[in-house]
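The pair is quoted verbatim below.
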Amino acid sequence: LISLQNITYSLYTVHGNAGHEVVVTYGPDGVTFAGASTVDRVFVNALEDAKGVATTTTQTKYSDLAMKNITQKIVTNIDPKNLDPNGNPLVQDQQIFVQTSSGLVETIHQIITAKTLDFLSTGDAKSQVITTYHVEGGAETLVGYSEYSNRLFDSSHNVTGQTVANYTDSTKTSLVSAQELRYSGFTTTGVPAHETIATYSDSSFKTVTGVQDILNTTISAIGNVIDMTLTKYSGRNSGDRQTGDINPVGLQSQEMIHNSLFDPLGNPKVQDITTVYYDSTGKSVISTTYVHIENTYDIYNRLATSLVKTSKEASQTSVLSVQNITY
């Protein structure tokens, strides 16, 4: 057993969509409380109701079983005017709020757009553009413009493959990164057990600069990754085709990461990382490092402080260095 969820549905529409949903999640023992959330949906016309596309969807996450302590709220709005002929959303407006000592504070605002008729029969968008704004003190600052394409999905609507080109703005004159991604082995929280990421230096996805292979071996009931292995490679097989498997070549390093504590937003507070570095052949070990890290974060999921201890051995009894870092 990975998790146990008690889900309650109510306020059904004519087409059988639940207007209110309560999810209480327990750990592997089926008893220990892990998290709670609610989802509220509002449908304003028959087409939206028939397609299951709500005008407003509000997801609220709580840290307690009584659901009195909110940690995060995500509000997604879809104007009925922005639906294609099949009822799929062409524009979505999403706001993310985080709980602080002074109440809920908006931190991120995203506009998600898709092209007319660029949807699968399942309602999944084959391509999307996401414009992201950082919100601080009510003021918005553009921080990213991302184009998602070549999307593949499983039967549960999880994205199993896609390419992503990230730019500073919609002019696309400054490329930040270009990646091709594969995901598999999804849990009920939507977190994949396996991820492979190929990074390119160009938006045409021609020149590979590196590949990361990620195995999330232990995932908590609410989707926090407790144990993961991150393996880095210099490139991918030249025979690979885009949208196919990513086969990495040129082993460089491998990190075994154990996250033992998390903040309310899922950021790891305590990490133990063992890193093995390989020579240019990928066969001989050059060195191994053992690092213990204690982190704190701000409401924007940015690191605020880190205490980093580097040791000679896994027992971490012989500390080589200690760093206190403030961001």
User: Anything to note?
Assistant: The two ends are 39 Å apart (CA to CA). The mean pLDDT is 94.
